[in-house]
Amino acid sequence: MKISNEQLKVAANVVRGLSMDMIEKANSGHPGAPMGMADLAVSLWLKHLNVDPKDAAWANRDRLVFSGGHASALVYSLFHLAGVGDLKLDELKNFRQLGSRTAGHPERGLMPGVEVTTGPLGQGLAMGVGMAIAERMSAAKYGNVVDHRTWVFCGDGDLEEGISHEACSLAGCLKLDKLCVVYDSNRITIEGSTALAMADDAKKRFESYGWKVFEIDGHDFDQIDRAYRKALKTTGQPTFILANTHIGFGAPKKQDSADSHGAPLGAEEVAGAKKNLGLDPEKFFDVPREVYDLFAYRTAQVHRLANRWKKDFKAWQEASPELAAAWNAALKNAVPADAEAKLPQFDPAKTVATRSACGETLNALAPVVPTLVGGSADLGPSNKTVLKGLGDVAAGSFAGRNIHFGVRELAMTAVVNGITAYGGWRGYGATFFVFSDYCRPAIRLAALMKLPSLFFFSHDSFYVGEDGPTHEPVEHLAALRSMPNVLTLRPADANETAAAILVALRHLDGPTCIMTSRQNLPVLPEARREDVAKGAYVLFDSSEQATGFKNGFPELAFIASGSEVAVALEAARKLADEGKAVRVVSMPSWELFEKQSALYRAEVLPKSCAKRVIVEAGSRFGWERYAEDPAQTRYVTMDGFGASGPYKVLAGHFGFTAEHVLEVARELA
C-alpha cells in the first residue's frame, strides 16, 4: 500500500487532536510544538523510520530522539497510535500525573521507545550525536549486522543552547552520515519571536560544520518526503533538514504565537483548532479506526524487517561465534571476573600522581573490557586517559577506542551519555575537575537515567598550583556529592585509584565520577584495595598501642580523602608516637560508605570517638554529616578560592601540611 498525503494529513491532525486533549485535561503542557511538528513526525514514522513497536528494544532499530522533550504529547500520541509499550488511551488521559508513564518530559525507563531522557534543551541533540557515533563504532566492530540511522527532532531552543554548536561541530568533523537532525524552525520561543535574540542563518551554520542541509516547508508532505529520502541517500556527512513550520498549527488565534508554546490553548481555542483541522470539536481523545489501521500497517512492515534482521543475526551468530559472544557480553556491560588480577601494582617506594595511576589502570583494563571507549576534552596527555595503541575514532574510521572531543566539555559529557545509552559500550569522558561545571547538566541526566557513564576529573584541588584559582576546584566535589544517584570517588593513592576504576566499571545503575591528583602522592602501604568498594575504611589505628587505650576504640579520628589522606596519616603517626589513641579513615566515597550496614559504619567511625578532624582540599560543605559532636570536630578544608603559586608553597599557605593538621588535632587531643 502506498500511503497518500491525505492519509498523512489525517493522521497528523489526529496527533494534534490527541496532543491538545492531553494538555487540556492535564491543564499543563506545551501544545505548540506537537501541533507544529506533527506533519514531520507522522511522515517519518509511517514512511521511513525503522522502529518496531512490537519490539522497541530491537537492536538494529533506528534511534529516535526528541531533543525538545517539552513536545512529549507528540511522542505519546505517536507511541499510542503505533502501540509502542502497549500505551493505552487511558494513559494519555493521565498525562503529567504522578506515577504516569506519560511524564511531562519523556523519561528513559518509564516505557519502551524512549531512548534518552530529554528536557534541558540541546542535551537530546548531543546524545543523538553520541548514539550516531556508537552506531558507527558498532558497525566497525561487528560488521553489516549493524546498519541503522539516528534521527533527532530539535527546535529553536535547542539551537540557541551552546551545546548544539559543540555537538554538531563534532558530528560534522566525524562525518556521521547515519545521523539526520530535523529542525522544527517555528521562530517562536517563550518570550516571543526568536528575532528578539537570534539572528543566525541556520542553513549556513550547519553547512559550515560540514553537514548536508535541506530546507523545506514543514507542512508540505511532498517536500518532507523528498528531504527524508535525500537524507537516506546522503553519504560522507550528517544531514540537517531545516523545516519551516507554524507553532500551534491550526489554532485560530494562537498559531505562530508564543501563547501556544507552554500553556494549554483553552477550550475555545481547542474547539476552533479542531474545526480547522477537520476534527470533531465535540469529541476528545478521538482516533478514527483508519488511523489505527495506518499505523498498524507500518508496524507490520517494520516488524517483518525486524524479523528478517533477527534471522540474519542468528546466522551471523552461528558463523561468527567469537563476535557473537563479544556482542552478548557488551550488552550486559560485563566485566571479567578476573579483572582485578589485571590491575597494576604500585611500588610504595615511589610517588605516583593518581591521574597517572588512572591512565595506567585504564590501559591495563582496556584489553579485558573491550567496550570501554572515550576520551578527553583536549586534555588526554594531562589527565592520562588515552588508551594507548587502541586507535582513534575519526571520520571514516570508527574501529578505534579513543575519541577526541576537542575543547567541548558540555557536549562531551552528553555525547558520552548517548554512547552509553546506545548499548554495548561504556563511554567515558575526561577533563580537569574545575571544568566539571560544564559537565553537570549531562551528569545529572545520566543520574536520572541511571546510565553507567564514566567521568574522570584530574587536577582535583588547589594543587594545580601556578594556574591559579580559575583552575583550582574548591566547591566542585561538594556539588557532585549533592547530586542524587551520582557515585563519586576520590582515591588516596595509586592503589586506591586502581580499585576505584574497577568499582566504577562494576557500577551499572548510575554515573561514576573519579577525581585524581595532578601532583605525585605517596603510595600508601596501608591502603587496602578491597575496602575501596566500601567507601571508607580504617587505614591506620594506634588504639591498642596507645596509653589511653579503652576497649579498642580511638580517642580521635582523622577522616580524609584523596591527597589529604597521606597528610592526615603523617599527623596521626606523630600523635600516636606521643601515646594517643588515634585512627585515620580513608573515605574515597561518601555514597558507597552510606550504603554499608550500620554496624560497619559504626566500626569505622564509632560514636564513642567524638573527636574528629576532617581533612579535604575542598569545601567543608556537607562534611558536617560526619561530625558526631560539632563542638569536638575540626576541619582543615578550603572555604575560599585557591591562589597561583607552586603547589608545595600553596599547601603551606592553606594549611594542608602534617604540621598544621597536627596543630588542629591537638586542640582536641
Structure, explained:
- The chain has 24 helices and 21 strands.
- It has 669 residues and is an alpha/beta fold.
- Helix 7 crosses helix 15, helix 11 packs across helix 12 and helix 20 packs across helix 24.
- It is elongated and about 90 Å long.
- The protein starts with a helix and ends with a helix.
Observed structural traits:
five-stranded parallel sheet; Rossmann fold; single chain; alpha/beta; 41% helix
Topology diagram in text:
Blueprint: H1 5-26, H2 32-47, E1 63-66, H3 72-82, H4 89-93, H5 123-142, E2 150-155, H6 156-160, H7 162-174, E3 179-185, E4 188-189, E5 192-193, H8 202-209, E6 212-217, H9 221-233, E7 239-244, H10 267-276, H11 289-319, H12 321-331, E8 351-353, H13 354-365, E9 372-376, H14 380-383, E10 392-393, E11 402-403, H15 409-422, E12 426-432, H16 436-449, E13 454-458, H17 476-481, E14 487-489, H18 494-506, E15 512-515, E16 520-522, H19 529-532, E17 537-541, E18 556-560, H20 564-577, E19 582-586, H21 590-594, H22 598-604, E20 611-615, E21 633-636, H23 647-654, H24 658-666
Parallel strand pairs: 1-2, 2-3, 3-7, 6-7, 9-12, 10-11, 12-13, 13-15, 14-15, 18-19, 18-20, 20-21
Antiparallel strand pairs: 4-5, 8-16, 17-19
Helix pairs in contact: 1-2, 1-3, 1-10, 2-3, 2-9, 5-7, 5-15, 7-15, 11-12, 13-18, 15-16, 20-24
Give the second-level CATH assignment, the architecture of the largest domain: 3-Layer(aba) Sandwich
> Helix share of residues?
40-55%
If you average the pLDDT, what whole number results? 97
Uncertain parts? none
* Spatial gap, N to C terminus: 86 Å
Please give the domain count.
3
Overall radius of gyration: 28 Å
CATH topology of the largest domain: Rossmann fold
Taken from the alpha-carbon principal axes, the silhouette is elongated
Helix count?
24
Structural class comes to alpha/beta
Question: Order of strands in the sheet with the most strands?
Answer: 1-2-3-7-6
Main sheet specs: 5 strands, parallel
Beta-strand level of the residues, as a percent range?
5-15%
CATH class value of the largest domain: Alpha Beta
Count the E strands. Answer: 21
Oligomeric state, counting identical vs distinct chains: single chain
CATH superfamily of the largest domain: Thiamin diphosphate (ThDP)-binding fold, Pyr/PP domains
